[in-house]
Structures are given as structure tokens and as C-alpha cells.
Amino acid sequence: MPADASSADTLFRRITDYANRADPYPLYAELREHKVARQEDGKYLVGTYDEIAALLHDPRVSSDLRNRAEPDPSIMPPEGPPPSFIGRDDPEHDRLRRLAMRPFGPPHSPGRIDALRGDIARISGQLADGLRGKSSFDLVDDFAFPLPVTVICDLLGVPSEDIPQVHTWADTVVSGLDFPPDEDPGARRHAAYEARSAMGQYLGELAEKRRHSPTDDMLSALANEDGPEGALTQQELMVTTVLLLIAGHETTVNLITNGMLTLLRNPEALERLRAEPELIPSAVEELLRYEPPVQFLPQRTPLADIEVAGVTIPKGVPLILVLAAGSRDPLRFPDPDRFDPARRDNQHFGFGSGIHNCFGAPLARLETQIALTTLINLLDGPRLLKDPPEYRNSPVLRGPRHLLLGQGKH
Amino acid sequence: MPGEARGARRDGRIVIVGASLAGLRAAETLRDEGFEGELTLVGDEPQLPYDRPPLSKLVLLGKAGAEDCGLPARRPIDARWRLGVPASGVDAAGKSVVLADGERLPFDRLLIATGTRARPWPVPGEAALEGVFTLRTSADAGRLVAALDAGPRRVLVIGAGFTGSEVASACRERGLEVTVAERGRAPLIGALGGTVGDWATRLQRAHGVDLRCGVTVTALTSAGGRLTGAEFSDGSRIEADVAVVCLGAVRNTEWLADSGLAAGPRGVACDAGCRVFTMYGIVTDDVFVAGDVARFPHPLFEYQLIALEHWGNAVAQAEIAAHNMIAPGPLRRPHLAVPSFWSGQFGLNIKSVGVPTFSDQVVIAQGSPEERRLVAVYGYRGRITAAVTVNRAKWLEHYRRLIESAAPFPPGPGAADHLADLEPVPSDVPDPRVLTHGPTVALTGHLPDRRLTLVRHDG
Ligand SMILES: Cc1cc2nc3c(=O)[nH]c(=O)nc-3n(C[C@H](O)[C@H](O)[C@H](O)COP(=O)(O)OP(=O)(O)OC[C@H]3O[C@@H](n4cnc5c(N)ncnc54)[C@H](O)[C@@H]3O)c2cc1C
Ligand code: HEM
């Protein structure tokens, strides 16, 4: 059958098409009809909740792009150090993730994230104060962007004078993930690669300093690790800390921004949160389901032929798990296209699932809960000035590039 | 909801006997699903429902108090609590529960959730010695912790099932000398078979446990009413000032002896909807059972009646039982959840899905014992029936799906972290009679025939 604009094997092309960025959800509904959709170029897309859950827990599904039958230069750098643990399989994934977790969360550092509560509230408060009295502003540049970078830099131990530089690198790396419609991707990717290396270099040198004069930040802990399994090698440390900086960067920005966008589109939900602030945590979960910052996982590869919903996905092909489609699967979530800040039984895929589930989830939750609470309390009658807003290129890390808001009397 | 309400039995009197995990969760579900009638919970323990798994883990380590394990009340249940008094019988014809203090509680529907108790040391005089403990209740845990706090020179653990192994682990973590005695060939062998059991043997020894397998304790020695040590069947003896008896559990069914229900030492038999059978095998429609005391048929295990001492089963079954107590016939649901269990010991997180004892072969599908990280997959006659993970719980869901779909054993190729192409080996599940401790999963119907040919250990 010839591929036309509405057949299932063009879905990926249509999902990545910038024209559909503001509302990809009808495409996801179409994908769910097929459960598994083979694309014209041999990729396989999966969009139903149960099937995604099964694949995310399937040990025959690799996150390591080196298992692709045909290397995909668009997402895999041709040279360079081995991938960070987001792109590795067990057992190496497990070892690297566990070592990174030691100074970050339970069981070795159970209090680390909660201890940031005060700092996050202070930074959010300062950023929100800067918005006071402005009749219009860009929520992305003026609030959502600076918050997570500042927090993760503090946590790792990047001195405040270096934050702008780190910020620029992170930005360049993330824009390398974009699929720009009208531009040769080569230059962008090269810049991203350079930025990633520079960042690794910088963090490696910083860690080296901390090895000799430790402070109480994560870099010091990683550099001076003396647990039973030894420490990360210098190269592993560089790759891992770059991952921590990048992974939590634009994702959290998008969650905060999507959050305000969604609340302003659903004024009754906004009113409800104002009246019942204890619903904020569940509202953040609902956002992760309803407008997730990570729309799909483009990096999976089957290590064997795997049967899913009656279709055999061959070993070595690109396997794309469309998390955002699964999180709106009507077979799993009643009334899935409704934003319900008090939804119960909300096991969304916003942070993935299985062994690669988001490492930074506790931090991302805390930041977003505090950010939204601050915005709801401090903004004065906010309203959307442009809806839909202008989106970033990336169909994976989907979110507004700018979110223009007005406030005060109009 | 009007459609759902049709035929639902939302009023009347419901009595729940056993006020612990299954009883509480059933009560909450009844209210969640709209039961508006009178609800009474009867429990022989004096306190409100609490959680048992921490008792052999955090509590023994002193990280939580024995009194601090209360189960969270997830919603108000508006119930009458009759705590501190056991039920002594059921008058099935008169539809009432009789309490030990003589009170009669009439019911329209009854839920039996009396669980199990610790099997005591068989010699009463020795069981009563100062320094001899069992571990089932928070009071037990409080007494045991006090004894461990006193710094005994050696602790003897009798029985190396899950509870015994967890107790041994906690003692080692506290720096106490421990001897573990197990009649079977290895720790955990009764629940997980020989392959995992052999690994557990190495694990315990590596943690400094004086592990003695293939022996029985023949006597507990004493002086002046106080434990001084133990003698073993191989003629050896040790000195110990604390002994923890971990011989497994006894189902609390004696109070049902004259009830005419199918209740006995192996539990209270019910159908897939948690409805209890009479002693004639006729299903009742007003008496339900859930939790450790229940025996129920499971389609994944050839409809054998199984009894599980698993936290997750108590919760799932209580929810189904409660639902079925008020739902009209066509809306009733079967209890089909795949059994699952966890344990924490010697710094490892052990989890299982399915029924490992329902197996003839086992293969290490991922990881390796040396790496303190593995997935063991169990098969019975060519299909997957269970999986056990060590520090690898994230993969469990995959294996649960394979069990549910009766996927072929051994599992196909391709799994990440597959270190060696190991061949399946016999799962080596011993006949429960050779163990010191009772099984935590009892297959109480016919046995897989493999068991008939299994090596019997002496003793
Ligand atoms: C030390 C320990 C550690 C454990 N660890 C784990 C673990 O790691 N993982 C896991 O999955 N499971 C574990 N379990 C098992 C888990 O706790 C049980 O599966 C669970 O408690 C079963 O709940 P239940 O309500 O069915 O029974 P129970 O908790 O036994 O409750 C039954 C209640 O009924 C009461 N009762 C009995 N007879 C009468 C009567 N005639 N009248 C009134 N009341 C009566 C009993 O006193 C008790 O309070 C552990 C158990 C123990 C003891
Ligand atoms: C709202 C914000 C965030 C979202 C939506 C998000 C989402 C995700 C998702 C979907 C994955 C799974 C990737 C996969 O399976 O391939 C993931 C992994 C990861 N995330 Fe996040 N993330 C967020 C914030 C953060 C933060 C703040 C950090 C760092 C502190 C972080 C660090 C990581 C890391 C290291 C991984 C890889 C985990 C692994 O491979 O084991 N994330 N995240």
C-alpha cells in the first residue's frame, strides 16, 4: 500500500512535523488504534499503555544505541566516550546509576532532596518577585528556565559565577536534540557535541578540585566516594554529571511551563488549586500525564524479536515508545483527555518506568510543586497572551519556547 | 452509579473477625464501595491494626519501635471495634459470631481474616524458658528487641525460612553472634528451592552467620528457668542466651471447629470469589475469607488450593472479598492476582512473583549470584510459573506477565545482563516435611508429581 499522509506508517513523520507540535494528541489517538505501527523507514512506534509498560519492563529491550542494526547518526554521536547510564543496559547501567544515587537519594542520602526545599522556595520567590508589577512577561525566560538550572548547579556544586556558562552549554546540548524543519542538522549536532565535551571537561576539573578540598555538594561526594564498589572513573564522572545537568534541565522547564499553560486553559482547575493547595502534588502528577515534557523515548532497540500485540518487532530496529500516547490511553485512564488535578490511580509514564525511570523525579516533583504554588500565589490575575504558544522544535522534549502571560487589570 | 447499585447489598450487618491487614483493608473497601450498614471488627490483639513485615526488619534493628508500625487508616470506616477479645465460634444456622466473653454478634455476612500465629517450640517447658522467643506480633517484637538490646553473647535462630533469615540478618547487622539451625539443606530452600537456597547459604556464611543445615535442635538447655544453649541432632551443642523460634505459622482456625465450615490446619477453603465452603464442599454465600488464613484455587497453578503468607495477597484478597460481599452475582470478581512476596536480608532486596515451589526447573535468567544481583526463573512442565529477583525488582513485572500468559520455559534469549548461558537445573524444591520451618506458600491441593520422586532428607 502506498504511504499517504494518513496511513499508519507515516505517523512518526507526522508526529515530528513541527506543524503538529501544538497538538500532537490526535496523532497519538491514531497511533493507539494500531497499538504498534511500523513506519515507512522501519521504525516501530508503540502507543498503548499496556504495551509500553510491558516493553519498559522487558529485559530484551535495550537503551544502548550500539545495539541498533543500523547506526542512526541523528541521535548517536559517531565518536566520544561511552554513553551515560541513560544509554546503557544492565549491569553497567545499574552500577553507574547506583554510584550516582549514593549522594543524591535513598538509601545513602535520604534527606538530600528534601533539604533543598528552602532553597527552591527562595529562588522561586525571587524569580516571581521579579515578575511583580510587570503587565506582561515570558514565563519561560523569566521564571521556568532559570529555576531548575540554578537548583541543579547548586546541588552539584557549580559556583554561581559559572552558572551562566553552564546554562549556555546546556542550552546548546538540548537544542542538538531538536529536529529543526528547515535546517541542516549537522551543524547543530556538532555544536551540541562540542558543548557536551566542554561541559564534561569543566565538571571533571571541578571534581578534581573537590577531590582535594571537598565541600558538601554532590561533586565532592562523587569525587571522594569510598563505598564498597569503589568510585566512578574520571571519565564516568564527567559523563554522569553532564547527564544530570542535561536531563533535569529542559524537562523541568517544560513541566512548569506546561503547568501554567494548562492551568490557564482550565480556570476551574486553577481556582480549585488556589482553594485547595494540598492538591498541588496530585496536580503535578496529572500534568506529567496530561502534558508530559518527555513525549516519547526514541532510543530503544530490541535485543531479540519481540512480539507485542500480535506484531513481531525485529531485533535491532529503532523502537519508539510514545509515552504521551500511553498516558492518555482510555483503556487505562478514564476520561483521559480531561485534566483532573485530583485524579486517583495515576500511574502515568511522565517519568518513564522500569530500570531507567527518572533518576531526578523527586527533585523534579519538588521543584514543580514549589514553582506552581509560588506562581499561583504571587501572580495577579495571570492570563495567556498567545494560545497556542510558540513551541520549541523538539517533538521529544516538547514544550513552549516562550509563554507570554499578562497580569493585572486589563 | 444507579446501574451498579442494582442488586448491591449495601445495608445489613457485616462482621469481620481478625483485625489486622486483611480485616482493615476489607473494611476500607466495603466503605469505599458504598456499604452503609453496620460494620464490626473483632480482634484478639488489644491494639489497632499494625503492619508485620517491619517487625523482623526495621524493628529488630532499632530503627522503628515495635509500637510504631500502625497501619495507616486510609479512610474512616465508621466501625465498631471489639479488640482484645477472641471470637470463639460461629453459629452458622443462627448467623452469629460468638465471642469468648459470651457476646453474640449477629451478622448478615461474615469475613474470616484470622491469619496465622507463630508455631511454638514443640516442648512446652523449653518454649516457656526466659530467652526463648517467637516473632509474629508487635508484642513479640518488643520483647525480642529488648533481649537483643541487652547484648546477648549468642542468638540461636531455629528455622531458616524468611523470618528466620531476616532475624539472623538483623542480629548480624547489630554485631551479634548468630547460629542458625535448619533441618533442610539450605536457608530459604522451602520457598525458593535449592539453587537459590545454595546461594543463600553462601550469603549467610559471608555475613558471619554460623549456619548449620541438615541438623535439628534436639533440646534447649537451661539453668534456673533461663535458656543457656541448645543441643543438635549431630551431637554438637552451643551456648546461647536468646533463641528465636522461626518454625513457620499455624493457621488460626480452631475457633471454627464446630462451625461446619471447611476450616482446618491448612486454612479455610474458599472459591475463587473468596466464598467459604462448608465441610461438605458446598459454597456458602454469606461467609467469606481473606488473607493468610485462606486457601483458594488459583488458575495459574492448575486450580490447586493455595495458601499464601504474603502481605500483598492479604490486601488483594481482602479487596476482592469485600467487593464480593456487597456486589450482586454478575459483578463479583475472582481473586486471580499473581502471588508476590518480598524480603529484606543481608543488605539484599529479594522479591518473588508466582509460586517458586510450583516448579520442576529453574534457570538464572539475568545477573549472577556472585554479583549480588540476579533473576531466577522457575518453570513447571515447560511453562514459566515463578521468578525471584535479588536486587533486581524492576524486572519483576516482565516475569509476572510471562507467568500470566503461561509463557514457555526457559525464557527466550536476548535479556540484557545475561551473563552466562546457563542451562536450567532442577528447582530442587524439598518436600515441606523436611524443613524446620513451615512453608510460606503451601500448595494444598495435589502436588506436582515431581515431588513424589524427590530426594528425602533424613530426620
Ligand atoms: C515478622 C513478619 C515479617 C513478615 N514479612 C513479610 C514480608 O517481608 N513480605 C510479605 O509479603 N509478607 C510478610 N509477612 C507476612 C504478612 O505480614 C502477612 O501476610 C499478613 O500479616 C497477613 O495478614 P492477615 O490480616 O491475613 O493476617 P494476620 O496479620 O495474621 O492477622 C490476623 C489477626 O487476627 C487475629 N485473630 C486470630 N484469631 C482470632 C480470633 N479467633 N478472634 C479474633 N481475632 C483473631 C490475630 O491475632 C491477628 O491480629 C511477614 C509476617 C511476619 C510475622
Ligand atoms: C519534570 C522533569 C523531568 C521529566 C519529565 C523527566 C523525565 C524522564 C524520563 C521519561 C526518563 C526515562 C528515560 C528513558 O527511559 O530512557 C528520565 C530519565 C532520567 N532522568 Fe529525568 N526527568 C525530569 C527531571 C529530571 C531531573 C531534575 C534530573 C536530574 C537531577 C533527571 C535525571 C534523569 C536521569 C539521570 C535519567 C536516566 C535514568 C536512567 O537511565 O536510569 N531528570 N527522566
UniProtKB/TrEMBL annotation, chain A:
Pfam family, one: p450
GO MF: heme binding; iron ion binding; monooxygenase activity; oxidoreductase activity, acting on paired donors, with incorporation or reduction of molecular oxygen
Keywords annotated in UniProt: Heme, Iron, Metal-binding, Monooxygenase, Oxidoreductase
Pro residues bias: start-end ranges: 74-84
Gene3D superfamilies the UniProt entry points to: Cytochrome P450
Domain of life: Bacteria
Region called Disordered, residue ranges: 64-86
InterPro entries cross-referenced by the UniProt entry: Cyt_P450, Cyt_P450_B, Cyt_P450_CS, Cyt_P450_sf
Family: Belongs to the cytochrome P450 family.
Protein name: Cytochrome P450
Gene source species: Streptomyces klenkii
Automatic annotation (TrEMBL), chain B:
UniProt GO molecular function: oxidoreductase activity, acting on NAD(P)H
Necessary cofactors: FAD
UniProt keyword annotations, A-Z: FAD, Flavoprotein, Oxidoreductase
Residue ranges of every copy of the FAD/NAD(P)-binding domain listed in the record: 13-318
Residue ranges of every copy of the Reductase C-terminal domain listed in the record: 341-419
Pfam families xref list: Pyr_redox_2, Reductase_C
InterPro entries xref list: FAD-oxidoreductase/Apoptosis, FAD/NAD-bd_sf, FAD/NAD-binding_dom, FAD/NAD-linked_Rdtase_dimer_sf, Reductase_C
One term under GO cellular component: cytoplasm
Protein name from the UniProt record: FAD-dependent oxidoreductase
